[in-house]
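Researcher: Last one for today. Full complex below.
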Amino acid sequence: MERKDYERLRWRCIRRALLELDITLTRFLDNGFDRLNDEDQRAFVELADMEDYDLWDLLTGKAEVADPRLAPIVALLRKS
Amino acid sequence: MSIPVLKFDAVIVGAGGAGLRSAIQLSEAGLKTAVLSKVFPTRSHTVAAQGGVAASLGNSEEDHWTWHMYDTVKGSDWLGDQDAIEFMCKKANEVVVELEHYGMPFDRTDNGKIYQRPFGGHMSNFGEKPVRRSCAAADRTGHAMLHAMYQRNVKANTQFFVEWMALDLIRDEEGHVLGVTAMEMETGQIVIFHARATIFATGGAGRIFYSSTNAFINTGDGLGMAARAGIPLEDMEFWQFHPTGVAGAGVLITEGVRGEGGILRNSSKERFMERYAPNAKDLASRDVVSRAMATEIKEGRGCGVNKDYVLLDITHLDPATIMKRLPGIHEIGLQFAGVDCLKEPLPVVPTCHYQMGGIPTHYSGRVVMPKDGDMNSVVPGFYAGGECACASVHGANRLGTNSLLDLLVFGKSAGDSAVEDLKAGRAHRELPKDVADRTLARISALDNRKGGANVHETRLAMQRTMQDHAGVFRFGDMLKQGVAKILEVEKAARQLEIKDKSMAWNTARTEALEMENLIEVAKATMVSAEARKESRGAHVRDDAPDSAEFPNGRNDKEWLKHTLFSPVDNSISYKPVNMQPLTVEAVALKTRSY
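Model: Here's the assembly. Have a good evening.
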């Protein structure tokens, strides 16, 4: 991922509406994001673009992950 | 260096509830309005407000705005201005119904009216019995509110500048406010927003504390900009705390955990609440529990390497009960404390939640400050609303669900006043020659400094200092030391160094600029708290205890006054509390007890 794209993603992870997501996404970005392949990195970007409660519901299991591309990343985030 | 100038009738900084509400007034009045936001508007921290918004609609049972006003004055421990409180409580029905017309999906009664639920401190007939006054949209009230108002703004052609950070307030020699300098994060470019009216709706600064429920975005940018422009900050010693946030993370643990039998323990596993509240123990009131926790930590009985938290133990409860009655708590423990709360106690600490003080405003939303003997002289062209402003309706402590009401009423009021002033002929004033010098100097210093202070370490030092010295329960000696310490941290915050010098998406630079705002708020808080030698509302001092002469430690004779912290020389002055409502009789002083 190019620096500019990564830094944009970083800003969208470290400045959320909900503290819970600030912590979870920042932690994942610092400890795991680098190890993802391109496709999974794109999936993470997609998740980071979601509305806060929609994403939080996925991470806490209140909502099911409909898109199979996103499921592995949601599973990793839940464990992070 | 030539800096682009964008001209608008009004520029609003912040796109949370207050910013969006004021933008509606301006755009619908046909004025060219810009809204700057560090994030997409519906990602503002207003989203996190779940409880609801107070309005005495009386849909479920009889209610009246004067009863709401009484609860608000009492909640404020009589430090709130009664003219502003009357204004807000009277306006509540209007702004809630407007929101409904914008499409806000409020919960409904069977007959289609807005459903109202009970909330702590909401009482009928001047404190007699609980009343259902809170209007909510499930547990997503703030979120639904932002969506409804954002759509309304899109319709009204408000121009959004998303992922832009305002950097400095522009004031001319006569003190008029002419707009802001701002940075587009995507390019790093600095731009001048030249406006006839400038409205701050930048939210709170809860990130000054180590433990805070606030999202990372709450860095007090509006307060920092106001302070750098010489505008004082009002009542900054008053911060609302929640007793149990996850230590090190800040994520809230519901008080229901203690309700279900959770026990607080210190480093020797002692159930310390038995000493502080022999009858109620862990079910004592929020204030009593927070104070006991802070005392245990201060006296060295905290846990962990830094002895800076206590334990909330539910390991004795039936796991099935925990999973059923306290949904989410197991997950929170695992995610944010790394603890399986079924097997081990959770580390908890009193956690900052809401800022009562802020930029001093009149209830019309106009910013005011002392000038030529007038304590409330209007700063021409400058308005503020929401958590960054101090109207003052929350005084020394905020009534639950009045935060969303504040941003609706005073967001609208600031917008209306700006429209009124612009229609009365307020024109664009000439920009000063040195208009962007301060901003450019700050950026240049960050980019060129070598051997300066690390942003992360400086922020941590500030947060630790605030938590240890100006937390939920305050001690005279600790506050004194705290002032000296925070002034030391300030020196580091004036000498920040960043390694990344790139222009585009430089998050290190943005975080450094935020830090320069946070430190202004931290300093104002510490100095104001040290100076106020009484206990009132959320400001509770060990050396101002409950006594016959001063119930709850409150001393109206000497301290029934607002603090004004001057950032120019770190000095304090005071101004009277407005005890005179607009049309009704004043709520007379009495001891605050629930």
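The longest strand of chain B covers residues 190-200. Residues 507-531 of chain B form the longest helix (25 residues).
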